[in-house]
Amino acid sequence: MVDERGLVIRHWGRLRATAESVLTVASFAPRDKCDVIFAAVRFTQIANVLEALAKNCSRHAAFVGNNPAAGAALSALRALSNAPREVAFGFQNGGSRREKRAWPAYMPAWA
Length: 111
Prior knowledge:
The chain is α/β, with parallel strands linked by helices and 111 residues long. The protein has helices at residues 2-5, 46-55, 70-80, and strands at 7-11, 16-20, 37-39, 60-64, 86-90, 95-96, 105-106. The protein has a three-stranded parallel sheet with strand order 3-4-5, with helices on one face. Strands 1-2 form a two-stranded antiparallel ribbon. It has a two-stranded antiparallel ribbon with strand order 6-7.
């Protein structure tokens, strides 16, 4: 769906929506250089992407999603990689529900 419609963000405070096109890939080669690689996978799938991320020449990576073992994932990635890595972990503080083909997000008041 992201490939077709882009990343659609509804700005509730501004009462409008924006759509940004993003490049998504199912796999990439070690020489495919990116500014930042966002790995949006389930916690149970992190081990499946670590080797591909470690072999890639890109320096920056961000894991997006629920990851209660971020320290272990970071240690594993650095152990597999021959190059220095800058790794970030992003955790969403909100929830959503599915409405037809959209997922309206709800952010807590403190976010």
